[in-house]
Amino acid sequence: MNLIVASAGIVAGLLVWWLAVRQLTTRSWEAQGTYDGRDGAAVASATPARTGLWVFLGVATSFFALFITAYFMRMNPHLVQAVDLRDWRPVDEPWILWVNSGLLVAGSIGMQLASSALRSGRFERASAAMLAGGMFAIAFLAGQWLAWRQLQAAGVYAAGNPANAFFYALTGLHGLHLLGGLLVWGRAVARMSQGRSTLAATRLSVELCTVYWHYLLAVWLVLFGLLLIT
Predict the structure, then answer these.
(1) pTM above threshold 0.85
(2) For residue 136, which of 163, 114, 120 has the smallest C-alpha distance?
(3) Mean of the pLDDT values across residues 159-180?
(4) What is the CA angle 136-110-146, rounded to 5?
(5) Is 12 exposed, middle or buried (0-12, 13-18, 19+ CB in 10 A)?
(6) What pLDDT does residue 176 have?
(7) Residue 33: exposed, middle, or buried by beta-carbon count in 10 A (0-12, 13-18, 19+)?
(8) CA neighbours closer than 13 Å in the CB half-sphere of residue 47
């Protein structure tokens, strides 16, 4: 059963990644038809911003891929020669990780609703959805901290065995990336509070945050699936 769930999680992660790439390469102002001169500067800066996010996601993907590769190599003794790797003892994942996964999915949905509402001119609805997306992400991080506390209460520490160390490293790195995203989210929320005068810049910030949230959801689904498989 765990293998089926984990495989479904990996497939879902890849699907979310594909949707994120599609949104990243879609020019929202083209869908709107035209834009006025007041937003011209914000629109002109859209391409560098999107390119920068694309490069960052590529680097982050390579980073996580290296850790996942190291995880598989360390877990399977037959992949490494002349090293005794029999000290690997899998971690029993805390149940709260399922709740945390739901929170991250809800946060990604909230961000998508904010982006869609902003494109259709529903500014108040976009603000509420954007705020909800960030709050769900904060709740996810709090849940991850509780998961760590549960493991430590059960005597599962990073120094206990390599599986423990990888669990803390993978979840911690993902959490750090989400924490960095929350800093950008905070700036976007502050920009939205300025009103409609910077609508194009606000739309760009919300859309980039949405893409990043989708990406982190995809990464988490892959990591969670990996932990379930092993």
Answers:
(1) no
(2) 114
(3) 90
(4) 15
(5) middle
(6) 93
(7) exposed
(8) 4
The whole-angstrom separation of Cα 123 and Cα 79 is 54
Query: Each residue of 24-82: pLDDT tens digit?
Result: 444 433 333 333 444 444 444 556 767 777 788 888 888 898 888 888 777 765 555 55
* 76-103: average pLDDT: 76
Give per-residue pLDDT as tens, 189-210.
887 877 655 667 778 888 889 9
Tokens of 132: 């909800």
Decide if 126 contacts 119 (C-beta within 8 A): no
Tokens coding 146: 């509780």
Q: At which residue do the structure tokens 């599609």 appear?
A: 22
- Side chain identity, residue 26: T
DSSP code per residue over 143-207: HHHHHHHHHHHTT--TTT-HHHHHHHHHHHHHHHHHHHHHHHHHHHHHHHTT-GGGHHHHHHHHH
Dihedrals phi, psi of 219, to nearest 5 degrees: -60, -45
Positive or negative, the CA dihedral 219, 158, 135, 94 is positive
CA dist., res. 219 & res. 224, Å (int): 9
Confidence band of 143 (pLDDT split at 50, 70, 90):
very high
Coil, strand or helix at 211: helix
Tokens coding 134 = 């960030």
**Would you state the structure tokens that stand for residue 187, as one six-digit string?**
């700036």
Residue that has been written with the tokens 């790439």 in this structure: 21
